[in-house]
Amino acid sequence: MSEDGKTSDAVDAQVLRSGTIRVRSEDDILRARQEARAVAEEIGFSTTDVTRIVTGVSELARNMHLYAEDGIMTWREIEAGRDSGIELVFDDEGPGIDDIQGVLRAEHSTSGGMGRGIQGTKKLMDAFDLTSNAEDGTTITVRKWQ
Amino acid sequence: MTASESAAVTQVYDVLIAAFPGRPTDQAVDNLQQEVLNQMNETDPRGVILDISEVTTLDSFFARVISETAGMVELMGGRAIVVGMRPSVAITAAELGFGLDSVDTARSTDHALLMLGVTVEDADDVAAESESEAATTHDDGDRSGSALSPGGGR
């Protein structure tokens, strides 16, 4: 899609604090969920928004583990004006996604997970950005504002 | 994996209740499915209640396993009912676009037992049998057929 996606095209935001979780096992997926839950709760998201965020993390962390085996989730507490929110980046150096548009649209995926998970996660978040190619792997950035 | 992440399958009358742990690994979810089917085979229950009241994150994988488990229970001749979905989980699942299609749901375990045809009277009978004939009911409202209550139940 684009060359070197670092942050999403969305609003500029200030980063208040951040952390990373390396995801290379199922236990790490669990850890990523727990960390995202703790941060989202601390930021003050509603129970339903926390559930949306953690569910999205679960989908994206699992995909990363499934297709790239090894990757990193970075979370950031962000602020723009009066708005506070969370940004989550899933970055791997896996094989990349061949058909990005297909993945974003697919109602059912061929592998029984990916398309549905990514497409669903997009609905749960306020901003979603995906860059992927065979050289650099895949980076997915999502944001949720309070 | 700690004990609190592992699954629990218990039996109530002739119904299995499988309680999904709140924050399981994918492996723990798979294990519970296996455990439900094994116990189904051993105990031949009339139904299985899949209790997800502790579940705070129902992603597409977890939802698929629950649907599959319900389908397998039905293939084995039982009825599966999902109970206890939290409001936030229901909202998120609907937004993600996975309803638990073709899966029966109930508001509570009591409601699910009722749907499976387990009535309070059945329960009383079982209790009465196990206590031999020691019990005499005093409750005027008791309509249990087994009671030889002095009040003259109809």
Which properties best describe this structure?
heterodimer; A: about 150 residues; alpha+beta; Heat Shock Protein 90; 5-stranded antiparallel beta sheet; 4 helices; globular; disordered N terminus; B: about 150 residues; alpha/beta; Transcription Regulator spoIIAA; 5-stranded mixed beta sheet; 5 helices; about 15% strand; disordered C terminus; ATP-binding (chain A); HATPase_dom (chain A)
Task: Explain what the structure shows.
Chain A is α+β, with helices and mostly antiparallel strands and 146 residues long. Chain A has one domain: 2-Layer Sandwich (Heat Shock Protein 90), CATH 3.30.565. In chain A, 39% of the residues lie in helices and 32% in strands. Chain A has a five-stranded antiparallel β-sheet with strand order 1-2-3-5-4, with helices on one face. In chain A, helix 1 runs antiparallel to helix 2 (47-68) and helix 2 (47-68) packs antiparallel against helix 4. In chain A, 45% of the residues are buried. Mean pLDDT of chain A is 87; it is low at 1-8. Chain B is of the alpha/beta class and 154 residues long. In chain B, strands 1-2-3-4-5 form a five-stranded mixed β-sheet. In chain B, helix 1 (26-43) links the parallel strand 2 and strand 3. In chain B, helix 1 runs parallel beside helix 2. Chain A binds chain B through residues 26-27, 29-30, 33-34, 37, 47-48, 50-52, 54-55, 58-59, 62, 107, 112-113, 116-117, 119-121, 123-124, and chain B through 1, 23-27, 56-61, 64, 86-89, 91-92, 95-98.
